[in-house]
Amino acid sequence: MNENTEFFGTKIAVSKLKNGDVAAFTFKNTTESLDSSVTVVKVDVKDKTAEIASWGKNNDYPQQILKAVRPNGSASSGLRFLRKAHYGNGLVLVRDVADANGKKETKMVELSEVPDIQKFFLDSQMNRFWKETIADLEYFSIGFPEYIVSENFKTINKVRRQKTAWCRFSLPNKENNLVEYVYISEKFGKETVATTSEYVEEVPLIDSYWSPDQVKEYCKTNNIKKFIRPIFYPLLDEALYPKSEWHAVAESGWLDVANSVPALKKAIFQNQMTLKYIVEIDERYLKALYQENWIKFTPDERIDIRNKIIDKVNESLTGNDNAGKAIQSMKIIGEDGKAYPAVEVIPIDDKLKDGSYLPEAEAANSEVLFALGVDPSLIGAGIPGGKLGAGSGSDKREAFTILSALFKTNRETTLEVYDFIAQYNGWDTSIRAAFENTILTTLDANPTGSKSVTA
Fold it and tell me: Domain span at residue 230?
């Protein structure tokens, strides 16, 4: 018996076991639903050659995003802020109870009160896991948690994060149209040739829409001791790999513009001549000064005389002590009866003023932060001479409050990991996980200037 469901936005037919549990899923018309940019990449895995779905034209889309972000201060700071705001004060366990008036009240549950959960958290280093998984979600809108099950398949013993940038989906199996594996390699995106099995790991893929009981039965039936069950922000029309909304600035070119301005300024500083003045010495002045001896001087002696005059002019023009100082120059009467300066100092016009290209940088950095959804005031964004100010305390407080409120859906995606493990392992269902927020307040409302809430 088959029924339709969806996996990564693609309709699939789910095959059921005799007892009613789901055992496998097959894709229908998967090839037609793949992004046009998805191409086949062959990799050697153990004793076979596998085919994976390229992430981007050259299977390096995550690496290209990282390459563009790392030299950009606005993008890096904005993403860092999103990661920290998402994590808040960290994951906490809570239980909803009724107060004396019968109203719902949320109470914290200490890990020490639940030894089975505490042991799991310690074994899996969950504080690190949450931060790493949040980083993947904020950068790429998808995470690849890997679950390790017990020998009898009854419990999940450990979960760990596999780096999103290193993960690729297998192409559907030609016999059953099943996307069966996630392939993991540090070499993906860095080598275009077939990657050897020495650097590639193959991990079974489990549908994120399956219930814990369905997953448990599937693992037991197929002797699967570890698997990946992806979590992801809502997909639109993508078949396999999501496209984060903030990646719009990478595709539109704004991120390139923001990165090109400092590179251009650096090249200008390294290559331009930093001359401030041109000093012109009239030959007639030297002849008048030295008279018949000028004709007797050798070329080297004449050059030396000119250099000494220029040095004297430099001494008068440079240095803090000479700021606003005037220099003296004689006048020479030419054959035409007009007066000409004996020594003339001509300022060189700087065609590249200090503020050149800064408006372009301001616009590009604004576009980056708009795409990320980070108010510039939260990271003190601003540039010398630009209009993008650092913002007031009130701006920062309100912007942070709004951003924290909008993180509810993002956090629900992250918490899918805890919810899945809790159901699979049979943990206390009255306990749930949440991320603790820091809410900024004014000092008259709270002497510390902040308070903590769970979200």
Answer: 1-59+142-243
Joined together, the tokens standing for residue 172 give 């559907």
What's the CA gap between 49 and 72, in Å, rounded?
A: 38
End-to-end CA distance of the chain, in Å? 41
Please indicate, yes or no, whether residues 328 and 437 belong to a single structural domain of this protein.
no
Q: Cβ of 455: how many Cβ atoms within 10 Å?
A: 14
pLDDT digits (tens, 9 = 90+) for 433-447: 999 885 544 444 444
Question: Alpha carbon of 120 to those of 116, 351, 420: distances in Å?
Answer: 6, 64, 14
* Neighbour tally for 219: CB within 10 Å: 20
Q: Is residue 135 part of a domain?
A: no
Distance CA 296, CA 74 (A): 66
What's this model's pTM, rounded to 2 decimal places?
Answer: 0.71
CB atoms within 10 A of CB 338: 9
Number of domains composing the chain: 3
Q: Which residue has the higher pLDDT, 354 or 307?
A: 307
Residues 202 and 264 in one domain: no
In a domain, 444, yes or no: yes
pLDDT of residue 356: 65
Query: Can you tell me the mean pLDDT for 5-31?
Result: 38
> How far, in Å, are 301, 393, 398, 399, 438 from residue 444 at the CA level?
79, 14, 16, 19, 17
For residues 358 and 323, membership in a common domain is answered with no
Where among 298, 319, 347 does a domain terminate?
A: 347
Q: Which residue's entry shows tokens 């009467």? A: 333
> Among residues 228, 243, 258, which one ends one of the domains?
243
C-alpha–C-alpha distance, residues 208 and 162, integer Å = 16
Is the domain of 262 the same as that of 360?
Answer: yes
Cβ-count burial of 194 within 10 angstroms (0-12 exposed, 13-18 middle, 19+ buried)? exposed
Cβ(403)–Cβ(276) below 8 Å: no
Does 65 fall in a domain?
Answer: no
Question: What is the DSSP track for 112-135?
Answer: GG-HHHHHHHHHHTHHHHHHHHHH
- Name which of 52-56, 62-66, 377-381 the model is least confident about: 377-381
How far apart CA 332 and CA 41 sit, in angstroms, is 80
* CA atoms 277, 282, 285, 287: torsion sign: positive
Q: Estimate the crossing angle of helix 115-124 against helix 126-140, to 10 degrees.
A: 60
**Alpha carbon 77 to chain centroid distance?**
8
Tally of CB atoms within 10 A around 73? 14
Backbone angles phi, psi at 384, to 5 degrees: -55, 125
Both 297 and 403 in one domain: the answer is: no
